[in-house]
Amino acid sequence: MATDKLFYQEQSNEVSLFNYAFEHQLPVLIKGPTGCGKTRFVAHMAEKLNKPLYTVACHDDLTAADLVGRHLIGPNGTYWQDGPLTRAVREGGICYLDEVVEARKDTTVVLHPLADDRRILPLERTGELLEAAPGFMLVVSYNPGYQNLLKGMKASTRQRFVALRFEYPSAELEQQILIKEAGADPHLAFKLVELAGALRRLEQNDLDEVASTRLLIYAARMMSSGMNPLDVCRCCLAEPLTDDPLTVQALMDVARIYF
Ligand code: ADP
């Protein structure tokens, strides 16, 4: 049975850079704002390279044990269960840690020896020292916009990675993404991308975050199915970005120029 390949619109030369990094067994760091295509890119590359992908959304309670694995209690006593990182290491898959700077600091202890030329994962609890299978690749991402002094990634960690910077796609590419991903007609896709451009230019003044490609896709889907365009702008492109009613109003003033 034929399976649909995941759609990914390349923005620059990231596909070939990733391929080179994979070939040379180098880990990759992707930085970019939320909803700009980082996760989709990694999923696309895993599919292209035919590698199993283990994705972990990192949060501030995520510990090394969540990545590596832990002993669990079953009907026949305790047994060891590999975490996603260990599975990728054993199988030669891709382990993608999304928003890696959120994770607890103890995770760096397991990431460092895997992210340099040693490519090993010490499993303290079982006494194993795993050598990563040849296809294993570590990919991490973070959003530099969320960075603060406490959460910044240490130089000793970031200097172990080949780093790519993602931005929101150019207007032409973003329009293509809306057409392919949301089934929007070209005129609607064009108008939404124009609006996004205008909203994004407001960023410095009012907002921490701007409308992402992800939100534009939501908006395109809802408008394409007949929902009132201004209602869509409010619930997809204004309310998700701010809690301040005055800022919502300002965003809607811009939306009214386009819809
Ligand atoms: P991030 O991981 O950067 O937060 P995602 O990769 O989850 O963002 O992207 C959000 C959504 O936007 C995806 O589910 C996909 O529908 C769409 N998208 C963003 N960029 C692209 C792209 N370059 N090609 C195809 N779809 C994209």
UniProtKB/TrEMBL annotation:
The keyword Nucleotide-binding applies. Pfam families: AAA_5 (PF07728), CbbQ_C (PF08406). It comes from the Bacteria. The keyword Methyltransferase does not apply. Residues 174-256 form the CbbQ/NirQ/NorQ C-terminal domain. GO terms for molecular function: ATP binding; ATP hydrolysis activity. Keywords: ATP-binding, Nucleotide-binding. Residues 27-161 form the ATPase dynein-related AAA domain. Belongs to the CbbQ/NirQ/NorQ/GpvN family. This is Denitrification regulatory protein nirQ. It comes from Colwellia psychrerythraea (strain 34H / ATCC BAA-681) (Vibrio psychroerythus).
